[in-house]
Design goal:
Layout (H helix, E strand, L loop, with lengths): L11 H8 L12 H7 L5 H6 L5 E4 L5 H10 L19 E8 L9 H9 L6 H14 L5 H8 L1 H9 L8 H4 L2 H20 L2 E7 L9 H21 L3 E8 H5 L15 E3 L4 H13 L4 H8 L8 E4 L3 E4 L3 H11 L13 H9 L8 H18 L10 H20 L5 H8 L3 E2 L1 E2 H8 L16 H10 L4 E2 L4 E3 L2 H4 L5 E2 L9
Parallel strand pairs: 1-4, 1-5, 2-3, 3-4, 8-12
Antiparallel strand pairs: 6-7, 9-11, 10-11
Helix pairs in contact: 1-17, 6-10, 6-11, 7-10, 17-18
């Protein structure tokens, strides 16, 4: 268990204890105060909040679910913008409600949806999502009175009380008369929201966990995208925000007529180096040790770059020079005695990026956190720094393993694939990689277009950022995955710069 320190003086041991808790909070992560302390508003959020943005894409660990929770918690979601675009008292009010995902017992569990798919009862996904939306609107204050009388007693009761058990209402909306009433209710809800000069955004998350097998989830995700692409042309006050993994959206199984029109209506969450370092600083400077941290790092960072932004607390607007100062104070200028061991600021970025150049915020935070824990076990460095380079180096191996464990939640094939890689030496020739590392593949766990095609599978893994191709066409693995897979690396291969 991680207990945040309450020291009030510049004590390196206390600061390390605090750094050790970088990804943890003192309260439930879904509690609004904790979200505000740990969440960093970034420029991409301006595009997320745009009413025309329907789709928010990102890989595992880029903050999609955290943003999904933030939007549901904030009374005024424009607080995400710094400064806010408008105030809570603006003429046009915006509200967010969950259409699927998040904690609680409102929506159908995976086991129920899996059984319905197996029984062939979800053959019309768009009808399913229309029913789910009606059930959500039936429970919302803005729309309840408009939806209830139109649905009729039986459908109102089924959607109101049994939304989490679709088998109790799916059969009802198979009837043309009931389905027509359901769409009429949705239209009336849109008019009611418009009359109240409001916009209701319905948000969707956890779509990769709809059912037990991703191959069975594709039709449901495809149906949701098709349903909303059509609906936003029909409704003006009901909009959506769908949080989806980038690789799922790119899968051929998701394609449908007009699906290309979703691309201009999407935004991809990517974290650049500046925002990654700002995230670390924000968490440190908004905890119980704000003053000691400011004393430790703030003397060389101008005060105007560490400003209070309501309600997010101290939000850094720092740049690369400030972050280099921070890393020099924390670890030192180099990851060793001289520059041959690597510039510290750049080392953290280079070693945590995948082959696409993306860095998951969680992995970035974990490297600081695990290094701090190791340093506490080893004792304080002899220098005035907080972290010794050797502890950071060893922490990277643990972060890599943590990243692989994280991916296992998304990709069921990771464990078997990783077992084939253990002990291998990379980079290796593509043909050799195909022969030695792609044995006993469970093809049904991969997208259909790569089935029984090892060359396509390698390209798919490159598209996920797990593998990369060197300039001489050999297959390599970035450090963020290399140690977690138990691979060994040949020397002399230049790493791409973040």
């Amino acid at each position: 268990m991680c207990a945040r320190s309450t020291a009030t003086q510049d004590d390196r041991g206390s600061l390390l204890e605090d750094l050790k808790c970088l990804t943890k909070g003192g309260v439930d992560e879904f509690e609004l105060q904790e979200l505000r302390r740990t969440h960093l508003p970034i420029p991409e959020h301006r595009h997320v909040l745009d009413r025309e943005t329907l789709l928010i894409l990102g890989g595992r660990g880029t903050g999609k679910t955290r943003l999904f929770n933030v939007l549901r918690k904030l009374d005024n979601p424009t607080e995400l913008l710094t400064p806010p675009a408008r105030t809570a008292g603006a003429e046009q009010r915006e509200q967010y409600t969950a259409g699927f995902g998040g904690p609680g017992r409102v929506f159908p569990p995976k086991a129920v949806l899996t059984s319905l798919v197996s029984a062939g009862q979800l053959s019309d996904p768009e009808r399913f999502w229309a029913g789910m939306l009606a059930g959500v609107l039936l429970q919302h204050d803005l729309t309840r009175s408009a939806v209830s009388p139109v649905l009729g007693p039986s459908l109102q009761r089924a959607l109101g009380q049994d939304l989490s058990t679709p088998n109790r209402w799916l059969a009802a909306i198979e009837q043309p008369e009931e389905y027509g009433a359901l769409y009429n209710a949705l239209d009336q809800a849109d008019k009611a929201i418009e009359d109240q000069k409001s916009t209701l955004f319905v948000t969707y998350d956890d779509l990769d966990r709809l059912v037990s097998e991703m191959s069975s989830a594709y039709p449901l995700v495809k149906g949701l995208l098709a349903f909303w692409l059509d609906s936003v042309r029909r409704w003006s006050a009901i909009r959506c925000k769908i949080f989806l993994r980038t690789d799922i959206f790119a899968a051929e199984e998701i394609a449908f007529t007009d699906s290309s029109k979703l691309r201009p209506l999407s935004v991809t969450l990517r974290w650049n180096p500046a925002n990654l370092y700002r995230l670390v600083l924000k968490r440190l400077l908004n905890g119980s040790l704000r003053r000691p941290w400011l004393q430790f790092i703030g003397r060389r960072i101008p005060k105007h770059r560490l400003s209070e932004v309501d309600p997010w607390g101290l939000v850094p607007s720092t740049g690369e020079d400030d972050h280099r100062v921070f890393m020099e104070r924390l670890v030192g200028q180099y990851m060793g005695s001289d520059k041959r061991r690597g510039d510290t600021y750049q080392w953290f970025l280079n070693h945590l990026q995948d082959s696409l150049g993306d860095i998951a915020p969680r992995s970035f935070l974990k490297l600081f956190e695990i290094a701090a824990g190791r340093q506490l076990d080893a004792g304080l460095p002899e220098s005035a720094k907080l972290l010794a380079p050797e502890q950071v180096n060893e922490a990277l191996k643990e972060v890599s393993k943590d990243r692989i464990e994280e991916l296992k939640e998304e990709y069921k094939w990771i464990e078997a694939f990783g077992a084939n890689l253990a002990g291998k030496l990379v980079p290796m020739e593509r043909a050799e990689f195909s022969r030695t590392c792609l044995r006993d593949i469970e093809w049904n766990k991969f997208p259909e277009y790569v089935h029984d095609r090892k060359d396509r599978l390698i390209d798919y893994l490159i598209s996920l950022g797990i593998l990369r191709e060197t300039s001489d066409k050999r297959v390599h693995v970035p450090d963020i995955y290399l140690f977690g897979f138990g691979l060994k690396r040949k020397g002399g291969i230049r790493r791409p710069r973040a």
